[in-house]
């Protein structure tokens, strides 16, 4: 599907590495928020038997998704499979085998950022939300980080460190418009 998406212009300001880091940050907030739900004890009586096991299992699933995002980010950043594997305590071949489908899905989503639903009228993003609409994600993640004091009084704790596209190589338009 080669039609432009609503957020192509905004997304083009970010390098793929920056978008991958944004997705990782977004997934990490979901893990943190999910883990926080297991801390308080006041509502334990309102939770069905084994309910906390369900929450903990969901936390593992979110953490696994975050790990996939971290691998994608590291690949975008230029890490080798051997470097990634060293932190996973597995071989480079096993890391490549395990995470190549996630990296390929990431790459494919850039070629086709959305698909149409079964009616053919609604766009379904193929990129994670944070990469599809990075400006919205930056606003949300900067707010999340500020409220949780991730950066001391830093209102751009997430967005300030993202890798943007290099516009230095783009030709400067002539003053006469040509």
Descriptive overview:
This protein has seven helices and two strands. The protein has 178 residues and is mainly alpha-helical. It has a two-stranded antiparallel sheet with strand order 1-2. α2 packs antiparallel against α3, α3 crosses α5 (92-111) and α4 packs across α5 (92-111). 24% of the residues are buried.
Mean pLDDT: 89
Q: Between the first and last Cα atoms, what is the distance in angstroms?
A: 32 Å
Oligomer: single chain
The low-pLDDT segments are 168-178
Strand order of the largest sheet: 1-2
Q: Tally the helices: what do you get?
A: 7
Largest sheet: 2 strands, antiparallel
Q: Any idea what the radius of gyration is?
A: 20 Å
From the structure above, extract its key features:
single chain, 178 residues, mainly alpha, two-stranded antiparallel sheet
Short précis:
With about 180 residues, the protein is mostly helical.
Structural topology:
Elements: H1 8-12, H2 16-36, H3 51-77, H4 81-88, H5 92-111, E1 114-116, E2 123-125, H6 129-132, H7 134-147
Antiparallel strand pairs: 1-2
Helix pairs in contact: 2-3, 2-7, 3-5, 4-5
């Amino acid at each position: 599907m080669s039609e432009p998406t609503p957020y192509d212009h905004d997304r083009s300001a970010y390098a793929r590495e920056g978008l991958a880091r944004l997705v990782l940050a977004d997934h990490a907030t979901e893990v943190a928020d999910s883990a926080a739900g297991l801390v308080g004890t006041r509502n334990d009586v309102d939770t069905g038997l084994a309910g906390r096991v369900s929450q903990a299992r969901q936390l593992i699933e979110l953490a696994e998704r975050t790990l996939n995002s971290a691998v994608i980010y590291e690949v975008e950043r230029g890490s080798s499979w051997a470097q990634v594997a060293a932190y996973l305590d597995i071989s480079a071949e096993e890391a490549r085998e395990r995470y190549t489908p996630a990296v390929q899905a990431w790459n494919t989503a850039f070629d086709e950022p959305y698909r149409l639903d079964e009616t053919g009228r609604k766009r379904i993003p193929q990129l994670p939300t944070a990469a599809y609409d990075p400006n919205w994600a930056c606003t949300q993640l900067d707010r999340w980080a500020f409220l949780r004091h991730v950066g001391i009084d830093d209102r751009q704790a997430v967005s300030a460190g993202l890798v943007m596209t290099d516009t230095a190589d783009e030709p400067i338009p002539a003053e006469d418009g040509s």
